[in-house]
């Protein structure tokens, strides 16, 4: 396989490595990954995270194992096991489906390698196209609110929603970002803040529960978020807390955009309520952990509800920014998404 380098995932000289997103920003630790068990752990623990990146990490590992001589049967099992690591982000299923097709070919090793390379390179291009389209919606001077991390760390390219912000800053300048810290795992506070600093884009970090008062004060011009799965009717799943923002945006009349590649569209899922939502370990809500150590602040066995994602109904979305174009409510109601794949 050729060398493939992204911000948090690289295949270089026959070695697959990932940047540990759980330890960022204070520790920048790369892990080598040679086995299915390791990749499963990396994905489940969110060291490898973000809808596109999960699919690409799993794909590069399958290609590496194919090149190492893993049998067809073992590769099929590995694909199934990796696909089961996280249930909500459909990009993983999209990638694993493409690899299953490749596995059927006579020269399956070459076919798997070519597929993995293509998925990686395609993601870079998809990010670029979304960013270009999305940047046209942003004006110089805008204060943009975003949730979770949707940047270069989460993709092979410049990101989805954060890629739009990055491009808008390049094209128009004078953009300021309100960064939701994104409880419970702090992808905003840890990762989006890290990326914006690296890109020198002005930002201000807020706790998730501060967004309402900011909007009421007229300090948010636009909201851009990513997606883990978009259903055929335009409802979409994204990091828990996204739905809150959509309701608030509707109340305050603030444009609310979702940014995602066509690989995040799941036309087999009719509506958002059909999307499986990943439930995670209660410990994540009982405290925090990361490069700064661990803290538990609740009673030891406090009862916890911890869905990783929530579903935003299409009726709250101003625009769907895909690599193929920006679509509005009436286009989506008339089934435009159904024609995209
Ligand atoms: O649990 P995570 O950190 O993998 O969740 C990530 C998100 O919800 C992102 O918003 C989504 O994957 C889009 S990333 C380009």
Automatic annotation (TrEMBL):
Gene Ontology molecular function terms on file: S-methyl-5-thioribose-1-phosphate isomerase activity
Record key words, sorted: Amino-acid biosynthesis, Isomerase, Methionine biosynthesis
EC number: 5.3.1.23
Pathway: Amino-acid biosynthesis; L-methionine biosynthesis via salvage pathway; L-methionine from S-methyl-5-thio-alpha-D-ribose 1-phosphate: step 1/6
InterPro entries named among the record's database cross-references: IF-2B-related, IF-M1Pi, IF_2B-like_C, Initiation_fac_2B_a/b/d, M1Pi_N, NagB/RpiA_transferase-like
Biological-process GO terms, alphabetical: L-methionine salvage from methylthioadenosine
Site (described: Transition state stabilizer): 148
EC class name: isomerase
Positions of transmembrane segments: none
Superkingdom classification of source: Bacteria
Catalyzed reactions: 5-(methylsulfanyl)-alpha-D-ribose 1-phosphate = 5-(methylsulfanyl)-D-ribulose 1-phosphate; 5-deoxy-alpha-D-ribose 1-phosphate = 5-deoxy-D-ribulose 1-phosphate
Similarity-based family: Belongs to the EIF-2B alpha/beta/delta subunits family. MtnA subfamily.
Protein name per the record: Methylthioribose-1-phosphate isomerase
Organism: Pseudoalteromonas haloplanktis
